[in-house]
């Protein structure tokens, strides 16, 4: 396997009046085309780690390396929980925004925008503004914008957490189908063990703050994976095993006041 992301002995400390040690001695390798899910208690540094991969935060210790095939284009794109789309831009303009500052021919940009609007079911809404869309449609716009730039690594920070249960289930299944078509490298932060098992090749379990990796579990279900795997006894058994490892850390985070 080809290594796409290498995180080596990473620590992160936020200085200030009340210093916070967010991460400690985190080492993780993500291979090309892997879908890796990060789970752990609130405040354990999952999102911080994701932002380090994106290059938005610097580690206080250790190194984070993304090995890109294209030396010119940014290798990563991120989808956030709160959509992060511009309310004054149309759906099409939001998806096109990812190309600003990138030297791509106009025809290629147009083709990519059309492709991802179609694949995310947004073509008929291309001239609509976000205020006219449901939460699920807004998140589709955010995902389309990230995928349109065709990043080598897609980073997703609890992208479905703000949605109701039904919409969340629909978008989980859409993401599963999309990923199984192109097998892009994905690092996905979630609090849902069910979501992690459905989508991931591996589930990385983190401790309460300061976040450390306490388990790295390979999901045993074959690809292509059907959403119906949720009903299998083995699915529930794996979810129970992961929760058994995570439960003490969640309790510890509550005692420590993590948010």
UniProtKB/TrEMBL annotation:
The keyword ATP-binding applies. Pfam families: ABC_tran. Keywords: ATP-binding, Glycosyltransferase, Nucleotide-binding, Transferase, Transport. InterPro entries: AAA+_ATPase (IPR003593), ABC_transporter-like_ATP-bd (IPR003439), ABC_transporter-like_CS (IPR017871), ABC_transporter_ATP-bind (IPR050166), P-loop_NTPase (IPR027417). GO terms for molecular function: ATP binding; ATP hydrolysis activity; glycosyltransferase activity. The keyword Glycosyltransferase applies. Residues 5-233 form the ABC transporter domain. PANTHER family: ALIPHATIC SULFONATES IMPORT ATP-BINDING PROTEIN SSUB, TAURINE IMPORT ATP-BINDING PROTEIN-RELATED. This is Mannosyltransferase.
């Amino acid at each position: 396997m080809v290594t796409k992301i290498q995180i080596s002995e990473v620590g992160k400390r936020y200085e200030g009046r009340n210093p916070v040690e967010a991460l400690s001695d985190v080492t993780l390798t993500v291979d090309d085309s892997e879908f890796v899910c990060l789970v752990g208690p609130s405040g354990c540094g999952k999102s911080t780690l994701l932002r380090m991969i994106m290059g938005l935060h610097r580690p206080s210790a250790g190194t984070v390396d993304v090995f890109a095939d294209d030396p010119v284009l940014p290798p990563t794109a991120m989808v956030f929980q709160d959509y992060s789309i511009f309310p004054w831009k149309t759906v099409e303009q939001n998806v096109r925004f990812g190309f600003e500052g990138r030297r791509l021919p106009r025809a290629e940009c147009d083709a990519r925008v059309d492709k991802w609007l179609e694949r995310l079911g947004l073509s008929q809404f291309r001239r609509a503004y976000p205020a006219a869309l449901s939460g699920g449609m807004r998140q589709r716009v955010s995902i389309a914008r990230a995928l349109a730039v065709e990043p080598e690594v897609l980073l997703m920070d609890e992208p479905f957490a703000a949605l109701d249960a039904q919409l969340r289930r629909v978008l989980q299944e859409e993401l599963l189908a999309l990923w199984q078509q192109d097998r892009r490298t994905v690092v996905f932060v979630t609090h849902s063990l069910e979501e992690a098992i459905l989508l991931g090749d591996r589930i990385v379990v983190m401790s309460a703050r300061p976040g450390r990796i306490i388990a790295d579990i390979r999901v045993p279900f074959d690809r292509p994976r059907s959403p119906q795997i949720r009903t299998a006894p083995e699915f529930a058994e794996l979810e129970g095993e992961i929760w058994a490892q995570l439960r003490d850390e969640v309790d510890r985070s509550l005692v420590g006041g993590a948010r």
